[in-house]
Amino acid sequence: MTDTSTAAPFLTAWFEILDGDEPSRILDLISDDFSLSILFSTGDGNATDFAGDRDALVGYLEQREKGTRTHHLLSATTLGQDELFLGEVRRGGAPEATFVAAGRVNGDGRLQRLLIGRSSEIRFT
């Protein structure tokens, strides 16, 4: 793995919280005008798009298998307010999918926009 520990500090912390004991803590990190789209593919052409505002994020959190999947950084970068994060999702330590996340952090240090795409059909490792 490339040493990119500070390349996308907000999203790196976001996924660490998401994988932790209290994933709902990410709700404290979003702005009042937050919006997201998480396109979650499970293969075979099946995908779910969690899109909307805070309520959509709450819905996404409620359906997750807490403690089952973990997010692992492959590479990341930051340009101004925008962070890009390429990662791997693992289930029980075994690679399950690749994902890319793009986030915009506002001037108050809160996540304003989040776009995530996940696919089990491609690996970057």
Question: How would you explain this protein's 3D organization?
Answer:
By secondary structure, this protein is of the alpha+beta class. Helices cover 16% and strands 50% of the residues. It is built from two helices and six strands. The chain is globular, with a radius of gyration of 14 Å. The chain starts with 8 loop residues before the first helix and ends in a 6-residue tail after the last strand.
Query: Whole-Å distance between the termini?
Result: 9 Å
* Helix/strand class: alpha+beta
What's the mean pLDDT score? 92
Beta-strand fraction estimate = over 45%
The helix fraction, in percent, is 10-25%
Helix-strand string: HEEHEEEE
Strands side by side in the biggest sheet: 2-1-6-5-4-3
Please mark out the parts with pLDDT under 50 across 5 or more consecutive residues, or reply none. 1-5
Oligomer: single chain
The biggest beta sheet, please? 6 strands, mixed
What is the CA-atom radius of gyration, in angstroms? Answer: 14 Å
Counting DSSP H or I runs of 4 or more residues, the number of helices is: 2
Shape: globular
Count the beta strands. Answer: 6
Give a short synopsis of this structure.
The chain is of the alpha+beta class. It has 2 helices and 6 strands, in the order H-E-E-H-E-E-E-E.
Task: For the structure shown, list the relevant keywords.
disordered N terminus, alpha+beta, 16% helix, 125 residues, 6-stranded mixed beta sheet
Describe how the helices and strands are arranged.
Elements: H1 9-18, E1 30-43, E2 46-52, H2 54-63, E3 69-79, E4 82-91, E5 94-105, E6 111-119
Parallel strand pairs: 1-6
Antiparallel strand pairs: 1-2, 3-4, 4-5, 5-6
